[in-house]
Design a protein that fits this description.
globular, alpha/beta, 12 helices, NAD(P)-bd_dom_sf, oxidoreductase activity, N-(1-d-carboxylethyl)-l-norvaline Dehydrogenase, domain 2, three-stranded mixed β-sheet, Rossmann fold
């Protein structure tokens, strides 16, 4: 009977999400290869038992599963094209990055060209859930290989939502969920800013909401960060701009009117232009 130790996983991209994903896979007994464009980030995982590689071909060689956790669609596509000579036909490709509808279609086509089994599996959650293996995986893909990918999902997340066999459905769902996260972020940031602007202690907004129907763990975490002026990134403004654009573009294609989403994108863009791209998206408050 095979075990996780018999499975080699190549994690391409070891940033805020990719690094804890690689660590948690190793903790569950998988052999983990890691690659990152900034080599030092992959090398930092060696102390945790992960094998770091300087080239994409070396990282994917011998891997049963390739997991991509890169910034955007073009980055994922470029990495997999560079890795192509070492990819084994029949390997499983688990695509965790948020790349939008067109990006997912492009990557699924690439997978087919190289004989890979493709799973569209963006995650719900940021740095802290990733570190705690508490991500929610939104998975779409063929039924036949789900027994291969489910242990991977179980190692990095608390729940897997199998959306459908249709590739791209998960990425569509992720855009809807991201829109909700952005709306919550902007709503909180503006409410605290309004209180301060009107001469009221913003902490009183949090006090009134706490324990009531509008309260949530997300509300508390982002409010605490804003009040403490602590914008260490769990999900950066730069990434928020990228994902908010994907939401608006997808809505345009579907002829869905998204006034709040457009306004939220403009707000994130304003914060980005002000030089806060590396800060957490709670820095919407700084707009």
């Amino acid at each position: 009977m095979s075990t996780n130790r018999d499975v080699t996983i190549a994690v391409l991209g070891t940033g805020l999400i990719g690094a804890p994903v690689a660590r948690n896979l190793h903790k569950q007994g998988f052999t983990v290869h890691a690659w990152n464009r900034t080599a030092a980030k992959a090398q930092a995982l060696v102390a945790d038992g992960v094998k770091a590689f300087g080239s994409l071909a070396e990282a994917v060689r011998g891997a049963d599963v390739i997991v991509t956790v890169l910034n955007d669609g073009p980055s994922v596509e470029a990495a997999m094209q560079a890795a192509a000579p070492a990819l084994a036909k029949g390997s499983v490709w688990v695509q965790l990055s948020t790349v939008g509808i067109e990006g997912t279609d492009t990557l699924a086509t690439l997978a087919k060209q190289h004989g890979l089994v493709f799973y569209d599996a963006p995650v719900q959650g940021t740095r802290q859930p990733a570190e705690l293996a508490q991500l929610i995986i939104l998975a779409s893909g063929p039924v036949e290989q789900r027994s291969v990918v489910q242990p991977v999902f179980d190692a990095i997340g608390k729940r897997t939502v199998w959306v459908t066999e249709q590739i791209g459905a998960s990425s569509r769902l992720k855009l809807a969920l991201n829109n909700w996260a952005f709306a919550l972020t902007h709503g909180l940031a503006e409410s605290l800013a309004i209180a301060k602007g009107l001469g009221v202690d913003p902490a009183l907004v949090v006090d009134v909401v706490t324990g009531g129907p509008m309260d949530s763990g997300y509300f508390q975490a982002k409010a605490a960060a804003i009040l403490a002026e602590n914008y260490a990134a769990s999900f950066s403004i730069t990434n928020a701009v990228k994902d908010a654009r994907l939401v608006v573009d997808a809505a345009d294609q579907a002829s869905v009117q998204v006034d709040a989403a457009r306004a939220g994108l403009r707000r994130f863009e304003r914060v980005l232009r002000a030089g806060h791209g590396d800060k957490d998206m709670a820095a919407s408050y700084l707009a």
